[in-house]
């Protein structure tokens, strides 16, 4: 397990550095929290937690168990989740953020075990309204529009 912890922590540290760099292009607001602040905060937290995982692994505090079984139901669910995210990325390009998210949110919820249609629909609408209000209204950031609608 030690080699898995070290490998995963190194990969996540690189991802965190990339996210931090990519977020530097977002708009800044003098003396206030701007659009680029939260991505940078999350990138720093990801980096610090990844570094902590690496330190724990190097000090010998990793679990002795195998990290996962590729034949388990949980691993198959992870693969389905990755598939949903990949479809989301394709839909994002063509349909834009709101419509792609209207697919992804209930799909992930269903994958995680939620079967009630009213809950799936209600939470999807609630999350999308919240995202619109926070980003489009409060932060004045346009949401990604798909190439089919531009």
Structure summarized in a few sentences:
With 150 residues, the chain is an all-alpha fold.
Features:
mainly alpha, globular, 150 residues
Task: Walk me through the structure.
The chain has 150 residues and is an all-alpha fold. The protein has five helices and no strands. Helix 1 packs antiparallel against helix 2 and helix 4 packs antiparallel against helix 5. The radius of gyration is 19 Å and the shape is globular.
Helix/strand structural class: mainly alpha
* Average pLDDT score: 86
| Overall number of strands | 0
Using the CA coordinates, give the radius of gyration.
19 Å
Oligomer: single chain
Task: Describe the SSE topology.
Elements: H1 2-23, H2 37-58, H3 73-95, H4 97-111, H5 117-138
Helix pairs in contact: 1-2, 3-4, 4-5
